Amino acid sequence: MNTIATRLGTVRGLDNGKVKSYLGIRYGEPPTGQHRFMPPVMAPAWRGTLDASRYPNRAMQDRDTGSLGQKVAGELSEDCLFLNIVTPSTSGNLRPVLVWIHGGGFVSGSANEYDGTVLAEQGDVVVVTVNFRLGTFGFLDLSSQGPGYEGSASNGVQDLILALQWVQDNIEDYGGDPGNVTIFGESSGGTLVLSLLAAPAADRLFHKAIAHSATCAYKAAYDQTEKLALRLGVGNDEYLDKLRSMTATEIVELGLRFRVSVDGQVITRPTFDAITDRGTAGVPLLTGTNLNEGTLYTEGDDEAKDHYPSMNHLLATEMLLGEDPDFYLESLREAYPDASPGKIHEMLWTDMFRRTCTLAAQLSTTAGPGGWLYRFDLPANLPEFRRFGATHSSEMAFTFNTFANPGTHARTFHDRNDPVVRRVAREWSDAIIRMARSGDPTGGELPAWPVYEPRDRQCLIVDENIRIESDPDSLHRSLWGQ
Known about the structure:
Strand content: 15-25%
Shape: globular
Radius of gyration: 22 Å
CATH topology: Rossmann fold
Helix content: 25-40%
Mean pLDDT: 96
CATH superfamily: Alpha/Beta hydrolase fold, catalytic domain
Number of strands: 13
């Protein structure tokens, strides 16, 4: 155990002899009762010694296990505004800070599923993982319900902004540098990273960004009052009271799905507009995807599924930021005439993430301080995942380099005892650390890796042989109309 004095009070955490962990530190007051659906409020100092030796509550969601069915520490609760900190030391020179935003489609997942101990020790950095409101609690648009609810469609984003403000105010006590903060996230967490670029309240709270397999904010918030009031059997004027009176479990059981939106209050403009608007005053961006994103959603099954037609149209529309996708869908089938329905569905998932990340990297170079693009190609080699290839979230265990310590955890599809896996994980996680340290991921054992720009479109391919390829997406870019 390890006890330190901070400006908010005394904290007792864990110490494994290499890094110190402080788990379950409250950054926001409980968003419960009359505070349900309201903006978060900064938590005050505490009295006595805070026990920070156990993982905290996770946000309410419809499953109690992790993304691969694994057991996850922490109870499900509306009272979920906590963060976890791992640091090499609370003394000495201040260290770069990495703030992790988990994925899960905006309705599931938690910070507790990711262990930053290896990354912290390896890079001499401070790793912060954040729990925030999900689903209806974090993303339901209630702006029609009066003052105080104007930004409710982005409550989950407001939670993250509050956590970043907490980091600015307090991370020095844990050995972190508030002047060198990198946000990083995957899937919906990567989307939230890109969306924070368009949230003015987050400006100056972070200095670099890493977005794995992201989409982005482009669509206006959608008021579901009439539809939901009808479903709940109440009038529009009783709608908010009804939602407030329901239990957290009853709200989760509504099964609502969400995406991040341009609500006009918190996220004020589309992501790509924000990158352009901010110009060189923006932040360096490292972004990319996996070669076979979509196999996670088909489990490698080529057969047709009843939901594919409507889902394919939705994925293609998202990829094209709301534009009519019919021409793209037709062009994709013409380009792959022998592809099965399952393969087409997989490619749509892959293209949705790929186009967004490619454009974000390109704009960050042409209009901003620089953007680097990668593609993770190293195929899964655990027996149960071999048919998945390099699937969605494959690079997570590499980003955190959990292979270096069998006691750590993150989602993984690869054999931690494979020497190729361990080498690639070290080289990739070192690039993540360099990005956090200097705003430039290049160097180390990697080949020369230029920023991504239209002239030569150079992309880092993360595989057994890590290499640079020029315009690896040329065919699909033609299908996207780029």
